[in-house]
Amino acid sequence: MLFTSLGLSDPILKAVEETGYTKPTPIQAKAIPFVLKGDDVLAAAQTGTGKTAAFTLPLLERLVQNHKSTGTSKGQPKRHIRALILTPTRELAAQVGENVEMYSKYLPYKSTIIFGGVNINRQINTIKQGVEILIATPGRLLDLVSQRVIDLSKVEVLILDEADRMLDMGFIHDIKKVVKLIPKQRQTLLFSATFSKEIKALAAGFQTNPSLVEVAAQNKTADRIAQLVHPVNKNQKKELLYKLIDDGNWKQVLVFTRTKHGANKLCEYLEKQGIPAAAIHGNKSQGARTKALANFKENKITVLVATDIAARGIDISMLPHVVNFELPNVPEDYVHRIGRTGRAGREGEALSLVCVDENDYLRGIERLIGQKIEKVVVTGFEVDPNIKAEPINQGGGRGRRGGGGGNANRNNSSGGEQKRSNSRNRSRSRNRSRDS
Question: Which of 30, 127, 235, 236 is the most exposed place for a label (fewest CB within 10 A)?
């Protein structure tokens, strides 16, 4: 199948052609026809499979077909918001905004991105000039609605991108507030990396007879990503990471830590070893986060160290390496982390540096993805068998508490799931304030 067979208009096809793509990915091939029909869609696919284009391309086509675009020149009505795309994080909003701008370059529509952490007056001025497509995080959106800057009464299409992450970050109440502000007669698209009971419940509340699109088993990792575990003592992780980067002559590697403090400390160590590095997490200003990501994409720095808050907003088509310096305490986050490599059909490598404290986390991840991950001990970094597992300090992070002492296994019981839920709830307000 080619993009030309999907019913997209020439201006959109021209923009797609200029990106170098000719064949749609499976999620695009399945979702686009449903969206073009006007159906509500509930879609899930592995990260890195082209979900953004799967809703952006047909969204633009729907706007073309509806013939409701208005100009801003003299004598013409002001533009109004016709499509609203909600994302959980700033980085993801920026990524979606880039896609919308790229694919709409030959169309008369204007789009903009709004999120917290940056000057609100510039966003207000842009909105007042008129846009048809708005990409936003929920917090800043509702802020501007309360200031009567944004009118959502003429929205035709609502899109929730990474809906599972939005629920996990506690945005459900904000989403409900937004839905009340837009017309009941609308098209609603929910795109997510995973399906869950919570996502299906959300769809039931906001959608009408949605078409279900799923192109991969839930939480399945992409076959094109080579996964490997390096067992190592906790106090040797930094040295092992440096060795891997230096010996492999890596030029671009995304490293995930569990805490913001850990990300900063790791950057300091790598810089001292002569490896350009930068950190990206919730305590960084938006300017610093944007600069770090841009420098990483342009190969001005070798290592970008991130916490899970950025796991879904980093889209680098040819990123070769992802390293879990520390395993995530929520197994699903492992899937999202390693999904930053092996994107758009390319191959990638995902390495995890695992100490004895994290063995339960590793077993939980392997259960989730349905496979054992190969373990390779690096010479000179053999694990000391006398070291006993200790509880892991989450540092205010999401998800489970505890570490290698068996807490992860207990979390598989209903009581453990409740503890995990409570821990998530405690961190939601922090995540929301930093990324919306």
Answer: 235
User: Is 220 domain-assigned?
Assistant: no
What's the pTM?
A: 0.66
354/375 same-domain check: yes
111-114 and 211-214: which strand pairing?
unpaired
Q: Is residue 219 part of a domain?
A: no
Contact call for residues 411 and 400 (beta carbons, < 8 A): yes
Number of domains in the chain: 2
350 Cβ neighbours under 8 A, 6+ residues apart: 225, 226, 227, 228, 321, 322, 323, 324, 337, 338, 341, 342
pLDDT tens-place values along the chain, 436 residues long:
889 999 999 999 999 999 888 889 889 999 999 999 999 999 987 666 788 999 999 999 999 988 644 444 444 557 899 999 999 888 889 889 999 999 999 999 999 999 988 889 999 999 999 999 999 999 999 999 999 999 999 999 999 998 888 887 888 999 999 999 999 999 999 998 767 788 888 888 899 999 999 876 555 556 678 999 999 999 999 999 999 999 999 999 999 999 999 999 999 999 999 999 999 887 888 788 888 888 998 999 999 999 887 656 666 767 889 999 999 988 888 888 888 786 656 778 999 999 999 999 999 999 988 899 999 999 999 999 999 988 887 654 443 323 333 333 333 333 333 334 444 444 444 444 445 5
CATH number at residue 241: 3.40.50.300
